[in-house]
């Protein structure tokens, strides 16, 4: 026991080191110059809008979190007196607060770095701009991973029961779902609104200061891509660690419970070291620098885990568990490569969409849907292979150890979250920097440099999206198995067990019914989030049209548009529309579990995970491919944007496809990840008190 | 045993009666006049194109069927000597041939009735036109149900083993998959080609004789909606009956094996009687007449089954099994109503899409996707409820009888296939009649009458689509359970059983991996069929453009377009592009079963069924709703087709949505039904010989 507490302490220390490193990095960024007063002013407007949104989002969620906490304290212990309701409630609140802190830290860092990145590009060049923007991303990445590891480790030191601290993951996942959905709606409402009226109707360029929605659009990049993704991966990180701890505890006792923390610690230290590999000179290739950082982190993590596994586990488990972790690392790379294949505009799928634009928007959309649907197969095959492999290697020592394999593969994948989030978050910083360069009317070569970074950011964002989906899938499976373990411990459900295990038989009508209901929920949540973007964008379009009409001198640059009003419309829409899907995500598992029983809930989780992952891949890849097909045409292919001064109909068709893809890839698709995870964490909590 | 053979004889007799009734009806239709020589000529061109397509389709499938038959004879008995390979091969070929016969009979009837319907509308009026077109549909409906029941009953009389005659269902389902996919590609390639160049570019009306693709378009209505749907439901009918027989045999012996035939016989007699309720006068409401026919059939079936169940089963099973059948009948009605709700243009979902067209095609498409995704939830809930209920009532007498419930619910749903197919098939006849009225330049009031029937046909088609999806879902579940029973009898797989039953544990990695792979296959098949339509339509567009350009005098009506070339392009594309998805459907289950084992195949079936049904609902309802949103605008809403003589951009946006929806609702969506069934029938055959 003493030794195991030492392990938890290592986890806490690694988490704290990562956080400290994040804060030091943040302080160092703050010393960089912000450029001209105009740049500072714009940056502050974006920052203000982003913070206003975050404040309102978290404020809206306070009643929800308090109600849940009260239910945890008052209701659960009545259903089973052995349950420590106060511990659950505290863990839940800590999880929710940590998620919010990670969001604030990351958002602060990225929104304060955009002007600094633009200034770095202006006064120093590409290398420095990459350095500033990537450091800003690293603050986000290390905050996410550090807070996750620290929170889980400290709660474990206090409560010594992984099931209690699952509530931490539940808190994180509830917040993550709202952050993902709200952020996704915000960013797309602003983007679609800004583009449809500004670019298409008024014919002014992207990020033009005359466009009233332009600040909202830049805010959206931060609240969607940075805060949403950060919350999502914070949740994956917490939930996977805890699911692995629960399963490990059941199989190996404290040693098994703590090894996931050790893997997390290795990954986080490797991520910190990995950030130092990301450097490039003026003519250099930022993508290569980022890839080097990622590979270095993966390799260092693998080496570290190899030795620690050998030190922790006896017999064949030592190698088996290392290989399971390695499988997670490999799937991570594979999913990233597949995402890149299906969305990159130098590859056949995306070019097919561009080609289909020749016969108009309908064929563009048909081919985009087809690419998205097609893109699910190989990632699913990789997941399946990784699951099979991890299961197999973990069973070498004993068949009963097998299910630890999937959890450790998930842990392996997530251990490098620090650097992956850093790579993802630097993109919006570079994107914003470009926006500021445009709005502050800096020389065009500054914009060219930030555009180069932004293009790299699109690729790293695709990789991070694949990572988020893959980690959500493995996390959900680990939670599913932890749930089965929890039900097996539930004294009221002993009649459901066979040889002490929960056998989730697909031929049992409860399981089948749960599976069918669960499988349909991702469609429902996709539908409601997609509709929300449509409605919110509609409001934004009308507001921008109104300002162009009513504010005199706006098009001549003589009058300032009312940026704040657009920010406030996007904020209001995002907050209002995130409620319904959020409640569906949290409440339906409760209805299924208490109404139809523990078996139905198991089926629900399986069905939800399968279609949730499929929809996530379909929507993300279709959207990404539509986007890049448009960009490829804009680069001058198939006639480019204009032919003989007139809009090129091929480009117009591609713009329509891209707009259809916007809510797919940035709202509905990303909402799938927290959807499947929140169901898992909720189920894990009620698994101990279900009565049928 | 003697008594049970008598029951099978009743099944065979009812099937033969239905077939005889179909032939008599067909003969009576042939006595109706065909109208002017021009009408006759057009009708014959359509018929010729349709028959040419069917001939080529079946000819292409001959090598495939022969290879499968040879494999059944040569390979299976080596894997397990108890297997009668020749019986399997014969049943398979009989199933394939019966499916083809049903296709020919129905197609013959509908293509020979189109001009007769137009003539009836011209010389007698609406009532007579409904009478002719519905009788044509009834020939199809009763051929499908009659051949299904006759084939299964006779094969049972010969082989007395439901597992052997499952091969009949396999034959039917293999053909059905190709027919659905090929027909779906054909109809949409022709439709999109005819519309994009004819209506949009050349500005000539629908069905204008100057359009080279117009005959192909009319052929498409027959090969897609009639032959494809007929093959689909023939398969459901055969597969459900056989799955119910296998499960019933395992539980009740011959009595249980034969009761499904009795339910089929009752349904078919009720369907024949039901057709007599479908009559209307000149000012009458054809929809009401059709609804009356459907309700009468449902009620007669329910009453018949109530008494026969009481006569066949002792104790609580009598009522329980009747209630399970009744649940199937009710789900049938409920799914139809839900389909109608999500696609009708007097309901909110469709109006939302129309409204969204105001802000352009992108928002139209986004809302259409959202409506389609939303529409899956309540049907899935109804399936889940029906499964739960059927399971529960069937377990009243004994828990071991429970799984007979789902099979009997499926049987209840399908027992009325005769009249449902009739209602579905009359639509294309009316649609074609309208086309002929247009091309033969009949007075406009004829077209108005056929349009009225066509509009009703769209609603009944929606109901039939819901029916096809619902029956496919229940059929697939019944097959899934029959598969579990088969594996339990497989001597090599006894180590997989627990208490003599196959426990399909979701916590088993094989099952999980199978589930994930199975869940992804519907996306792959959707993608490939959608892409096929895109590519085939592209070829058609180019051909129509070429004819307009190269054939002089075509636009003035002085030169005849080359209809045959368009027919042949559509045929070639449909045949070529149906191969890949067809092989995926048949071969992947073999790979999973022999490669990963019986458990993985069980997971595969579950995953495939869940997402297959979801995708079927999503695609069909999104497509239907886009279509009707466009029609609603064309009826003069939101500005109608033109504003001040210029194309209304709102209408143009809706046309784009409709075109996106075309392959969704008529190709990819309908392909899902045979996809999930063919996997079930293949698995059922190899379930006896899997070796791991």
Describe the structure.
The structure is a homodimer of 692-residue chains. The first copy, chain A, is mostly helical and 692 residues long. The first copy, chain A, has one domain. In chain A, 83% of the residues lie in helices and 1% in strands. Chain A contains 20 helices and 4 strands. The longest helix of chain A has 46 residues, at 444-489. The first copy, chain A, starts with a helix and ends in a 6-residue tail after the last helix. At the A-B interface, helix 12, helix 13, helix 14, helix 16 and strand 2 of A face helix 12, helix 13, helix 14, helix 16 and strand 2 of B.
DSSP summary: helix tally of chain A: 20
- Category by helix and strand content of chain A: mainly alpha
Spatial strand sequence of the major β-sheet of chain A: 1-2
Strand elements of chain A, count: 4
Helix content of chain A: over 70%
Q: Report the C-alpha radius of gyration of chain A, rounded.
A: 24 Å
Series of secondary-structure elements of chain A, N-terminal to C-terminal: HHHHHHHHHHHHHHHHEEHHHEEH
Biggest interface reads: A-B, 76 and 76 residues
Q: What is the CA-CA span between the terminal residues of chain A?
A: 35 Å
């Amino acid at each position: 026991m003493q030794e195991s507490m030492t392990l938890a302490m290592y986890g806490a220390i690694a988490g704290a080191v990562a956080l400290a490193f994040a804060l030091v990095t943040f302080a160092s960024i703050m010393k960089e110059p912000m450029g001209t007063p105009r740049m500072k002013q714009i940056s502050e407007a974006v920052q203000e809008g982003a913070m206003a949104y975050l404040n309102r989002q978290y404020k809206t969620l306070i009643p929800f979190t308090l109600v849940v906490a009260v239910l945890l304290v008052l209701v659960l212990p009545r259903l089973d007196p052995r349950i420590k309701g106060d511990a659950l409630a505290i863990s839940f609140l800590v999880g929710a607060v940590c998620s919010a802190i990670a969001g604030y830290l990351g958002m602060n860092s990225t929104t304060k770095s955009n002007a600094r990145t633009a200034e770095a590009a202006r006064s120093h060049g590409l290398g420095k701009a990459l350095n500033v923007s990537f450091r800003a991303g690293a603050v986000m990445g290390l905050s996410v991973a550090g807070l996750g590891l620290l929170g889980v480790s400290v709660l474990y030191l206090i409560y010594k029961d992984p099931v209690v601290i699952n509530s931490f993951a539940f808190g994180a996942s509830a917040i993550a779902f709202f952050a993902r959905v709200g952020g996704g709606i915000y960013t797309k409402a602003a983007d679609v609104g800004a583009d449809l009226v500004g670019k298409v109707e008024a014919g002014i360029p992207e990020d033009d200061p005359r466009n009233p929605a332009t600040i909202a659009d830049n805010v959206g990049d931060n609240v969607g891509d940075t805060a949403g993704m950060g919350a999502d991966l914070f949740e994956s990180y917490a939930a996977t660690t805890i699911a692995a701890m629960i399963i490990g505890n059941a199989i190996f006792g404290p040693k098994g419970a703590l090894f996931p923390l050790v893997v997390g610690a290795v990954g986080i230290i490797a991520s910190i070291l990995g950030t130092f590999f990301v450097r490039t000179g003026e003519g250099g290739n930022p993508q290569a620098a980022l890839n080097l950082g990622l590979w270095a982190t993966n390799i260092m993590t693998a080496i570290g885990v190899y030795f620690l596994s050998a030190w922790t586990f006896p017999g064949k488990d030592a190698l088996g568990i290392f290989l399971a972790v390695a499988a997670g690392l490999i799937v991570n790379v594979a999913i990233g490569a597949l995402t890149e294949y299906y969305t990159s505009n130098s590859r056949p799928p995306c070019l097919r969409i561009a080609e289909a634009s020749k016969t108009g928007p309908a064929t563009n959309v048909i081919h985009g849907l087809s690419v998205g649907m097609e893109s699910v197969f190989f990632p699913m095959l990789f997941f399946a292979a990784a699951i099979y492999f991890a299961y197999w290697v973990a069973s070498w020592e004993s068949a009963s150890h097998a299910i630890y394999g999937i959890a450790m593969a998930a842990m392996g994948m997530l251990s490098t979250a620090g650097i992956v989030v850093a790579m993802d978050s630097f993109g919006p910083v570079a994107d914003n920097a470009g926006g500021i360069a445009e709005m502050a009317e800096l020389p065009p070569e500054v914009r060219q440099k930030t555009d180069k970074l932004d293009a790299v950011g699109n690729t790293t964002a695709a990789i991070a999206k694949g990572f988020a989906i893959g980690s959500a899938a493995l996390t959900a499976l680990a939670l599913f198995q932890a749930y089965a373990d929890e039900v097996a411990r539930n004294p009221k459900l002993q009649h459901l067990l066979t040889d002490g295990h929960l056998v989730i038989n697909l031929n049992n009508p409860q399981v089948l019914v749960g599976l069918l209901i669960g499988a349909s929920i991702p469609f429902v949540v996709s539908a409601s989030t997609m509709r929300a973007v449509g409605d919110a964008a509609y409001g934004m379009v009308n507001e921008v049209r109104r300002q162009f009409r009513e504010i005199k001198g706006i098009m001549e640059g003589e009058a300032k548009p009312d940026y704040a009003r657009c920010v406030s419309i996007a904020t209001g829409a995002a907050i209002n529309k995130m409620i319904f899907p959020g409640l569906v995500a949290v409440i339906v598992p409760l209805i299924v579990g208490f109404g139809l029983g523990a078996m139905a809930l198991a089926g629900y989780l399986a069905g939800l995970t399968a279609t949730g992952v499929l929809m996530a891949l379909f929507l993300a890849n279709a959207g990404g491919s539509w986007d890049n097909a448009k960009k490829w045409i804009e680069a001058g292919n198939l006639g480019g944007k204009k032919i003989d001064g007139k809009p090129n109909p091929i480009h117009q068709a591609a713009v329509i496809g891209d707009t259809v893809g916007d809510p797919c890839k940035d709202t509905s698709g990303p909402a799938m990840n927290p959807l499947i995870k929140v169901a898992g964490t909720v189920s894990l909590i009620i698994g101990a008190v279900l009565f049928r």
